[in-house]
Amino acid sequence: MVKICCIGAGYVGGPTMAVIALKCPEIEVVVVDISEPRISGWNSDRLPIYEPGLDDVVKQCRGRNLFFSTEVHRHVGEADIVFVSVNTPTKTCGLGAGKAADLTYWESAARMIADVSRSDKKKIVVEKSTVPVKTAEAIEKILTHNSRGVKYQILSNPEFLAEGTAVRDLFSPDRVLIGGRETPEGREAVNALRNVYAHWVPEDRIIATNLWSAELSKLAANAFLAQRISSVNAVSALCEATGADVTEVAHSVGRDARIGPRFLSASVGFGGSCFQKDILNLVYICECYGLPEVAGYWREVIRINDYQKSRFVNRVVSSMFNTVAGKKIAVLGFAFKKDTGDTRETPAIDVCRGLLGDKAVVSIYDPQVTEEQVHRDLAMKQFDWDHPRHLQPLISPSDLANRVAVVHDAYEAAREAHAVCILTEWDDFRNLDYQRMFDAMHKPAFVFDGRNVVDPAKLREIGFVVYAIGKPLDNWLKDMPAVA
Ligand SMILES: NC(=O)c1ccc[n+]([C@@H]2O[C@H](COP(=O)([O-])OP(=O)(O)OC[C@H]3O[C@@H](n4cnc5c(N)ncnc54)[C@H](O)[C@@H]3O)[C@@H](O)[C@H]2O)c1
Ligand SMILES: O=c1ccn([C@@H]2O[C@H](COP(=O)(O)OP(=O)(O)O[C@H]3O[C@H](CO)[C@@H](O)[C@H](O)[C@H]3O)[C@@H](O)[C@H]2O)c(=O)[nH]1
């Protein structure tokens, strides 16, 4: 029986391995992690991550050919194929701080693989984490310099799933990318991994490339996706200035088959653990290779994203007579997108910090994010690479307790509030009883829709002053221009 072990039971390792186990019943799959709570979560009825459809997949194969364990060494030692799916965050200090990928977790995982693999069999090590180009070479060096007779092949097999649709993406991926060495042993390893995916992915969707193309394709794909969002967000600012409607513009642009309709929704800004981190990583790599113009091109994608968040905060403050001091603001949605509880790099953190910096009192409701998580996020120090200063106020724990409430429904958040800010596009927010909210709010009552989920005309009929990203402005807002 082929044995697969995945190091890292996170948003990628957990769902990816669960789907492999489901589709390949004859393969034993063990997901290991150093985090005891994470592993007990995976072994319980309440999985550590919220992902539609995942419970069902895990229930079908857990205990059959899918296992979650903290016995990292044993399972890595026994495996034929080891996936490495550990975090690769942005470095916060030292060389490349604020840009380069921090490969500490990666390197320790690689060294551990070398330490615990002792037989003379072949072992395939698969990069699942998103890593800088040429990381495979570094890993290869660590493994071969410490090998105890084991013959290693390194593959790059980046993951393209998006959170909230992970199971669907894994069941039916646009492509599976496998990079390997262009040697007979390398090709053999590529084929071994191809055979795993071929259980359910059509052959023509499995792409084999050299190692560096696979590593770079992942960073490039995320940069292209984020660039589309920054493009439409840049257009949204122009729409507000001219009276055009960004939804109409995006629809017309996206109907061109060469452009396509997806990833053209204007928003308060993109978030998530990947886009910013991976673009920064790309920027750093370009700088290291002496390509400052290319680095500058991609850096602008992040600058526009920061501008969009800062523009949103300024709209809120300027519309409300240039001060939100002491005013209660209801924040609907804290996760970085709908259908996930993940808050990593969510634009809600920057927006809430901006509002708190202007002395607002915020009341937050998100169906999947806990109070503990919100408090941790708002208190956390972020690396301040080029973030506008006013979005980086330091929030003391007492300030947090006094001025941030996390509540259990949208109506509670809006009660006696001056404004509602919609920061995540949860479906439920489309169908709230906005009349009920209006009746319970101070007047004038404002809605700032950072995700274009509400119908501004309907809300204006109720009596709200409405701002929606990239939509024609109310006269009220025209009279109170916001400078980003
Ligand atoms: N989140 C996504 O949607 C997504 C999608 C595609 C690619 N990626 C990439 O995949 C990688 C993992 O992302 P994630 O979101 O799953 O991260 P995560 O933080 O959810 O999970 C990583 C896990 O690795 C564990 N870990 C770290 N070092 C370890 C070690 N030495 N031994 C055992 N376990 C260890 C951590 O405890 C953690 O549970 C990153 O490189 C990310 O960029 C993420
Ligand atoms: O038209 C759009 C589409 C997305 N977003 C925002 O962009 C962010 C990222 O969304 P999405 O890409 O759907 O989620 P992720 O889980 O971050 O997935 C991205 O990052 C993953 C990690 O690398 C990749 O695997 C995926 O292919 C890639 O889509 C979120 O804040 C979204 O709200 C917009 O503002 N407008």
TrEMBL record:
<feature type="binding site">
    <location>
        <begin position="129"/>
        <end position="130"/>
    </location>
    <ligand>
        <name>NAD(+)</name>
    </ligand>
</feature>
<dbReference type="GO" id="GO:0005634">
    <property type="term" value="C:nucleus"/>
</dbReference>
<dbReference type="InterPro" id="IPR036220">
    <property type="entry name" value="UDP-Glc/GDP-Man_DH_C_sf"/>
</dbReference>
<feature type="binding site">
    <location>
        <position position="344"/>
    </location>
    <ligand>
        <name>NAD(+)</name>
    </ligand>
</feature>
<feature type="binding site">
    <location>
        <begin position="8"/>
        <end position="13"/>
    </location>
    <ligand>
        <name>NAD(+)</name>
    </ligand>
</feature>
<feature type="binding site">
    <location>
        <position position="38"/>
    </location>
    <ligand>
        <name>NAD(+)</name>
    </ligand>
</feature>
<protein>
    <recommendedName>
        <fullName>UDP-glucose 6-dehydrogenase</fullName>
        <ecNumber>1.1.1.22</ecNumber>
    </recommendedName>
</protein>
<dbReference type="Pfam" id="PF03721">
    <property type="entry name" value="UDPG_MGDP_dh_N"/>
</dbReference>
<dbReference type="InterPro" id="IPR014027">
    <property type="entry name" value="UDP-Glc/GDP-Man_DH_C"/>
</dbReference>
<comment type="function">
    <text>Involved in the biosynthesis of UDP-glucuronic acid (UDP-GlcA), providing nucleotide sugars for cell-wall polymers.</text>
</comment>
<comment type="pathway">
    <text>Nucleotide-sugar biosynthesis; UDP-alpha-D-glucuronate biosynthesis; UDP-alpha-D-glucuronate from UDP-alpha-D-glucose: step 1/1.</text>
</comment>
<comment type="similarity">
    <text>Belongs to the UDP-glucose/GDP-mannose dehydrogenase family.</text>
</comment>
<dbReference type="GO" id="GO:0006065">
    <property type="term" value="P:UDP-glucuronate biosynthetic process"/>
</dbReference>
<dbReference type="GO" id="GO:0006024">
    <property type="term" value="P:glycosaminoglycan biosynthetic process"/>
</dbReference>
<feature type="binding site">
    <location>
        <position position="33"/>
    </location>
    <ligand>
        <name>NAD(+)</name>
    </ligand>
</feature>
<dbReference type="InterPro" id="IPR014026">
    <property type="entry name" value="UDP-Glc/GDP-Man_DH_dimer"/>
</dbReference>
<dbReference type="InterPro" id="IPR008927">
    <property type="entry name" value="6-PGluconate_DH-like_C_sf"/>
</dbReference>
<feature type="binding site">
    <location>
        <begin position="86"/>
        <end position="90"/>
    </location>
    <ligand>
        <name>NAD(+)</name>
    </ligand>
</feature>
<feature type="binding site">
    <location>
        <begin position="274"/>
        <end position="277"/>
    </location>
    <ligand>
        <name>NAD(+)</name>
    </ligand>
</feature>
<keyword id="KW-0560">Oxidoreductase</keyword>
<dbReference type="InterPro" id="IPR028356">
    <property type="entry name" value="UDPglc_DH_euk"/>
</dbReference>
<dbReference type="InterPro" id="IPR036291">
    <property type="entry name" value="NAD(P)-bd_dom_sf"/>
</dbReference>
<dbReference type="Pfam" id="PF00984">
    <property type="entry name" value="UDPG_MGDP_dh"/>
</dbReference>
<dbReference type="Pfam" id="PF03720">
    <property type="entry name" value="UDPG_MGDP_dh_C"/>
</dbReference>
<keyword id="KW-0520">NAD</keyword>
<feature type="active site" description="Nucleophile">
    <location>
        <position position="274"/>
    </location>
</feature>
<dbReference type="GO" id="GO:0003979">
    <property type="term" value="F:UDP-glucose 6-dehydrogenase activity"/>
</dbReference>
<dbReference type="InterPro" id="IPR017476">
    <property type="entry name" value="UDP-Glc/GDP-Man"/>
</dbReference>
<feature type="binding site">
    <location>
        <position position="163"/>
    </location>
    <ligand>
        <name>NAD(+)</name>
    </ligand>
</feature>
<dbReference type="InterPro" id="IPR001732">
    <property type="entry name" value="UDP-Glc/GDP-Man_DH_N"/>
</dbReference>
<feature type="domain" description="UDP-glucose/GDP-mannose dehydrogenase C-terminal">
    <location>
        <begin position="330"/>
        <end position="456"/>
    </location>
</feature>
<dbReference type="GO" id="GO:0051287">
    <property type="term" value="F:NAD binding"/>
</dbReference>
